[in-house]
Design brief:
Strands 6, 9, 10, 11, 12, 13, 14 and 17 form an eight-stranded parallel beta sheet that branches. Strands 1, 2, 3, 4 and 5 form a five-stranded mixed beta sheet that branches. This protein has six helices and 17 strands. The chain is 24% helix and 29% strand.
Length: 267
């Protein structure tokens, strides 16, 4: 392997790959590309490369956090580059190399300010640590019966007049959480999908027959499964599956579980 000043060798750790663990592993990178992965005696290390010692730890791909509201006193709804920079610098120290800042339900002007802030940061060249991928907007189109931490007085049904301003930010709006049983939700799901935005279910009491139109329109994700989600309930006196059972049963659906902090699900 030729010497290259842009090459980096990471050694003395356990490499985690999708298929196996490689003990006493080595990773060789060139710029943003991985050139070689393997055991130390199997990988040729280019002369002159920068060497990083993993000191017996794990060498793994960077984590992607797709649902995070803030850290270290910074909130996404602060809508300032400094808030995103604080989050970016902290996350990268924990192995998170990219993230999707998430906004809780707030007045429309505050949500639009958050979207505009991410757009400006991306256009200005990004952040110093973890990369910001876009915005996850959680609300305001949620069911008050499962409002959780969202202010009930701001929760509304989706109408074209209410969601049109958010669609103008489809370049930075990565995903939106909504309750598919609300009037107008299916049209919103369709509008999001047409613009390449992920439509996610959350804060919902929907049952299967209420899910079907939304799934056909493009609903493909569910957030913080088991938390603020309806479960088994009655429909015309029959016991039917709620959000939890329906989403777990659908093999084509992706869902989140917030398992680390003991608040969203039991430890």
């Amino acid at each position: 392997m030729k010497a290259d000043a842009r090459c980096t060798v990471i050694r003395n750790g356990t490499v985690l790959t999708p298929l196996r663990e490689i003990r006493d592993g080595v990773v060789v990178t060139e710029g943003s590309c991985i050139r070689a992965v393997g055991r130390r005696n199997e990988v040729e290390e280019p002369p002159g490369a920068e060497v990083m010692d993993a000191v017996g730890g794990y060498i793994a791909p960077g984590l992607v956090d797709i649902h995070v509201h803030g850290s270290h006193g910074a909130d996404v709804l602060d809508a300032t580059p400094e808030a995103l920079e604080t989050m970016s610098r902290f996350f990268v120290t924990r192995g998170v190399t990219s993230f999707v800042p998430t906004m809780i339900t707030a007045p429309t002007e505050d949500l639009l300010a958050g979207l505009d802030n991410v757009r400006r940061v991306q256009r200005a060249g990004g952040l110093p640590g973890a990369e910001v991928l876009g915005i996850h907007q959680e609300g305001p189109f949620l069911n008050p019966e499962q409002k959780g931490a969202h202010p009930e007085e701001l929760l509304v049904c989706p109408t074209p007049e209410r969601y049109a301003p958010f669609l103008e930010y489809a370049d930075v709006l990565t995903s939106m959480t909504l309750a598919p049983e609300l009037e107008g939700a299916v049209d919103l799901v369709r509008a999001l999908r047409e613009r390449g935005v992920v439509a996610a279910c959350g804060h919902s009491v929907a049952i299967h027959r209420e899910f079907l139109p939304a799934i056909e329109a493009g609903l493909s994700h569910a957030v913080h499964c088991f938390c603020n989600m309806g479960t088994l309930r009655r429909d015309n006196l029959k016991r039917v599956a709620g959000v939890v059972q329906d989403r777990l049963h659908d093999a084509g659906n992706a869902f989140q579980i917030v398992a680390a902090e003991g608040a969203h699900v039991a430890e």
